[in-house]
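Good morning,

Attaching, inline, the backbone tokens for the sequence recovery test we're adding to the shared suite. The designed sequence is right after.
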């Protein structure tokens, strides 16, 4: 995911997968980079 896409990606997951849990992790430079979506948690 691009460093400037956190808000858009969060909103998309919340709208499309309301029951899923997600987290966004930063890369070694401190920029948002990875989106993990968890089901059945």
């Amino acid at each position: 995911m691009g460093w400037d896409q956190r808000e858009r990606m969060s909103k998309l997951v919340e709208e499309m997968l309301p029951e899923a849990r997600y987290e966004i992790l930063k890369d070694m430079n401190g920029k948002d980079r990875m989106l993990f979506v968890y089901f059945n948690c």
